[in-house]
Each structure stands twice: as C-alpha cells, then as structure tokens.
Amino acid sequence: MPQNTMNRMSTLDAEFFFADHDNVPLHMGSVAVFDGPAPAYTDVLRLFESKLPRVPRYRQVVRTVPGQILRPVWADDEHFTIRHQVRHATIPAPGGDEQLRAVAAKLFARRLDLSRPLWEEWLLTGLADGRWAILSKVHHCMADGIGGNDLMTLVFDTDPEASPPVRVKWAPAPGPSLAERAADEVRDAVTRPLRQLTATSGLLHGAKPQDLLDFGRGLGESARRLIEPSAGFLNGPIGPRRRWAWTATSLDELKQIRKVHGGTINDVVLAVITGAFRDLLTERHKLTDGLVVRSLVPVSTRGPDESGVITNLVSAVLANLPVSEPDPLRRLTMIRQQMDSLKHRHQEVSAEILTTMLGLSAPMVLALGAQAVFRAPQPLVQTVTTNVPGPRIPLYVLGRRMTALHPYVPIGNAVRISIAILSYVDTVSFGVTADYDSVPDVDVLIQGIQRGLAELTGACRA
Fold this sequence. Notes:
Elements: E1 7-8, H1 11-19, E2 27-34, H2 41-51, E3 60-63, E4 73-76, H3 82-85, E5 86-90, H4 97-109, E6 119-125, E7 132-139, H5 145-155, H6 178-204, H7 209-226, E8 242-250, H8 251-261, H9 265-283, E9 293-300, E10 314-321, H10 328-344, H11 347-358, H12 363-375, E11 383-388, E12 396-397, E13 400-408, E14 417-424, E15 427-435, H13 442-461
Parallel strand pairs: 5-6, 9-11, 11-14
Antiparallel strand pairs: 1-4, 2-7, 2-13, 3-4, 6-7, 8-15, 9-10, 12-13, 14-15
Helix pairs in contact: 1-12, 6-11, 8-9, 8-13, 9-10, 9-13
C-alpha cells in the first residue's frame, strides 16, 4: 500500500496557483512539430502513460481547503485517467502554419481544470506534408520555463530507436487527512519564520560590503528607471481569447550579432523585441520621444545541481526597452548597458528576497495577495519577455524527429502582450501571446521581430 505523503506547495508555486482565473490561465506551453507519418492517438496515450513514473507530479493534484486556511499540498489523484490529460485534435485544411496557430491559440486560451493534474498534451494531426504536432500545457505552479524544458527531455526521447518503457501498475498514495494537514501547518507556522529568515540571509551569505553597496545603488537606479515615461496605454483589461504567433531564426545569426556588437544572446533578443515594439507603436501612432516599454524579464535562480527540479526557481528584473531610439545598434548598446547594470547590482536578488519573505504570510493572506497582484490594474509593466535555452540535441517521439519547437507564455490581467524566446538545436523561436480583442495587430510585432533581426544582421556585414 503506498505511503501517505505530505508535499506542501512552495510560496512561489502557490502564488501562481492562487492567481489563476478565467481570463488569466497561468500555464506555459509549446507546440512541437514532427516529421510524419502521424502516430495513432492510442500509441501516444500509451507512450505518455509509460513515461509518467519519471514525473510523479504528473499524477498529482492540488488539494486546498475552504478559505485557504491551510497551505495547498500536492497529492496523488485517486481518479487519474490518462485520457483526461492526453487529447487529440485535427488541424483543418490546408494544414499550414496559419491553421496550426489558430487551433493552438484556442487550446492555449482554455484554462486547465484545477481539480485535475495541471498539464495537458494534445496530439495535433492534419498538418501539410504529413507532419503532426504535440501541443503541451503545464501550469506555472508546477514548473518555470527551464523546469518545463527539463520535463520535455524526460518525456520525449533522444534516440529515434528508443522503445517506450514498460508500463507499470500504479496505485495512488492516500492523501493527508485534514487533521494531518492542520497539525503540519501548526508545526510549519512555528518553524517557518526561522526557515524563511535563514533562507533570506542565505541569499546574502558571503556578500562583500561592496556587493551590498552595489545592491543599494542598484535599487536607486531601478527606482529612477521606474519614473521614465512608459507606454502605459499598452496596458488594459483582457478577455478570455488569445492570439498566438511565432517567427524563428538561426541561433548562429544571434551569435554572430553578439560576436560583432558584444553583449549576450539575451541582450540581442531584447534589442530585437525593442525594435518590434517600436514598429507597433509607430503603426498605432503612439511613439513619442523618450518613451520606453517596460518589460518583466524572468531570471533563473537554478543552481547547477537543480536541473530537473519540478518547481519554480526563478526571480525577475524590470528592464526598460528603449523604443524611442531609432538606431538599432544604439538600442542594443542601451539594452546591454542596462542589463549589465542590473546584473552587477544584483537586482534579481531583490525579487527573490521578496518571494522568500512572502513565505512568512498565512496561506489566506498569500492567496489574497497573489490574486490582488495578478488581477489589479497596473500601468507599470507592459510586457513579459522570457528567454529559455531549450534542448540542444534532437528529440524524438515514437521514432519521429521534432523539427520545430515554438513557445507559449501567458499574459497577465493588465499585460496584453508577452513574448517567449526558446531555442531548439540550432533554431530560436519567438512566440508572441496577445489578448485577442485588444491586439489585432500581433502580426506587426512578428514582422517587427523579423525586421529587427535583419537590421542587426545587416549591421554585422556593413
């Protein structure tokens, strides 16, 4: 008989769980395109079911109590059925990228059932040239972007000749009783302050006086950046529908731009996105001197020994994208200088400290706080741009090679546009998620990304 386990949710995971609502389903995702022929749905079902022992969280659900007086816990789903998690849909003719994007946008817009395991896989058949795809959705309370890629490498294969694991019988472990959870919450309430303060001090452990001085100066610089005029008119209410589009480039092209002009790959993609937003604001007749588009930029806090850890290990910084600057090379320089300063001043640590300190809150306060932050109107942040290194080796499903991988990242309650950047082997894909009603011109952003890449590549050859 499986043993009862107590698996309490982390603070950051709980924030993402509580913030989810009808207009803001907080799952990440991707569309992986494969060479044909398309497999049978039953074969895909059997494959995923055979891989589940590698990811026990995929058979677990979140257990809460009314009023959120106890922190959410993960528990085995006593009614788990693989057909609830792995679905099938057909792309309408002619099965091109346009039809794939339209179907994917509808599926991504659908909220995950919070009473079931918080993931879905969709087998998408009917693509042109015999191709097919797998659309993946994983709730943000389960994993961050890097954790999501770790999950992909666990479930997909690196060998085209790999045989699916032998399916083994599984029986759910009994979940903790209400009395056991209450006793655990009492024990946690006693020890939590010391553990959280220890964790906070651990973030600063080994910091030199100069590091602390730089951190303080960085806070001042960040405050000054917050008063720069930003494109707050991009913010506003969102609805339940989504637009989703992508464009891709070669990793070598980004590396060449970095080699010639300096900085990091992330600096380059932020500069490209800055140019795309400049085009969008120009198209809308909203571009003015000195204007910035403020972006939340997630920063991984994973250590070298934390690959494959199924949780959120992420912080973030705020970056001002200098959309009013007409020169693409000058935009790249400004981005590079700003990101260098944020890293040198250790500004990503401040967000991590805040999240750690939130762990001191009672579960009900944490739930209310997360809902308020994610649902309240705000003009401060206009977009989210997340850059995640994906698999560097080819992946396979049932012997078919994955030929393309396009990312999806959710938008927030007042943030109408988010952009995810994901690499796979030697290709980098930009996935743009937008509110359906307020961003009918998402193609302007896609074309702007293409133009921004062409501008910086052309500057390398000049």
